[in-house]
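Entry details:
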Amino acid sequence: MVKFHSLLTFVSAICLASVTSVLAGPYTLSDNIVGPAFFDAFEWQAIGDPTHGRVQYVDQATSRSRNLTYASSNSFVLRADSTTTLSPSGPGRQSVRIRTKKTYQTHVAVFDVRHMPQGCGTWPAIWETNESNWPNGGEIDIVEGVNDQAPNAATLHTAAGCSMPASRTQTGTNGQLDCNYAVNGNTGCGVRFTEPNSYGPGFNNNGGGWLAVERNNQFINVWFWPRNSGNVPGDVRNGNSGVNTDTWGTPSANFPNTSCDISKFFNAHNIIINLTFCGDWAGGVYGQSGCPSTCDDFVNNNPAAFANAYFDFASLRVYQ
């Protein structure tokens, strides 16, 4: 009986190890979004801006006819209008907000970005959320900044009850540790990257780079690799059919489940890409940014200033 029990324990251990290995193994490509595929993978959100920006989000037909979104075989561009002077009493500057048709829970998303929007008044973002259940369903900001103020910051926003430890394995610098949206005007628990070329003109002058997020029930990690970095993992640089995040090194931002039940605070999420102007954040800090005039006046009266207010994506690859 003892021998049988020992054998059973041994077999069970092997099975458990096998299951654990599967759960911790590499991720496999599920969505390879390149060039024209963005038009099929995303839906256009012609909605009022929830962050109260000086923007008019347009539908896909309008964005294509006005050349605010266009694609080639290896590029997808999303941009704002840069030719129209706006009436202060009229709609905001035309721009685009898109959301994936699919939702994701445990996944890795790799964004190969050649260029991101820059300029005074700009507020570009790449992020994930469940809009219909915000903030209870959580939010993950992968790229976000305003008024060309580097570096990038990755941030979580949640309902009350989720916070981050002061000490964790990451290269970035902690901001607020409480992720609760109701604390400090929806500041969230953010991590500022160390690289000045992770956001804005510095990012663009360097040819962009790769950003990646990994989400599971144990942690949420965000990485950044500049275009000319010698540390870009091969599976990221080459857009492989599978990725192994264990080989990617220390993330820029690490959000562990130590004091935050990720499965509770984060629903299945859409990926959202958008460009707004002024509004709650970019407008709120505009006076401290070194930019001219007021934010709304600048956006209204200087269309040519937004010639570089565009995203250029080489690819978005999602692995599950």
Q: What stands out?
A: The helical segments are 2-24, 37-41, 60-65, 200-205, 234-237, 262-265, 279-283, 295-301. DSSP finds eight helices and 19 strands in the chain. The longest helix spans residues 2-24.
